[in-house]
Description:
There is one protein chain. The chain contains six helices and six strands, in the order H-H-E-H-H-E-E-E-E-H-E-H. It has helices at residues 15-29, 36-45, 54-63, 70-82, 124-136, 153-156; strands spanning 52-53, 86-90, 95-99, 108-112, 118-121, 147-150. A three-stranded antiparallel β-sheet has the order 1-3-2. Strands 5-4-6 form a three-stranded mixed β-sheet, with no helix packed on it. The termini are far apart.
Amino acid sequence: xxxxxxxxxxxxxxxxxxxARGAAATLSGTGYRGGRARRSVxxxxxxxxxxxxxxxxxxxxxxEGKTIGLASVYRTLEQLSRLRLVQRLDFGDAARYEPLLATxxxxxxxxxxxxxxxxxxxxxxxxxxxxxLGSQLDYALEGHDVVLRGSCSDCRA
Length: 157
C-alpha cells in the first residue's frame, strides 16, 4: 500500500541520479566536506540534459532560491573535475561542465557561432567510427569530445 501523501509509483532512478549520489559519496570519501553549496551544485548538475557554464549553474541555483556564491560554484566544479566526476568542455566563450557517467553514456555538442546556443546530439555510427579510428591509430581511447560549429536555424532565418 502506498504511503500517505505519495504520488504514484516511485520514479525509476536515472544514470544522472546515480551520478549525483556517487559524486557526493566520492567527495565525502576523499575528505571534502559535504557542504550545502557543494550539494546544491551536484544536485543541479544531476538534473541537466547538457553542459552548463559556472555562471549558468550559479544563475540556475539562484532562480531556485538557493543562496550560493559564484566562487563556491567554481570551487565545486574544480573539485569535481579534478576527481573526474565532471567533464570540462572549453568552447571558447566559457568552460562548460557536465557529469561523467559511470555507464560511459555521453553525447556530443553542436554550437551556434552566432548566438552561442549549445545543443546535445548522439550518433551511434559516429561512435563506431571513432572506435575504429582509435584501433587504426593503435590507441586505447578513454574518451573523446566532438564539437560541431555552425549557425542554428534561428540565426540563419
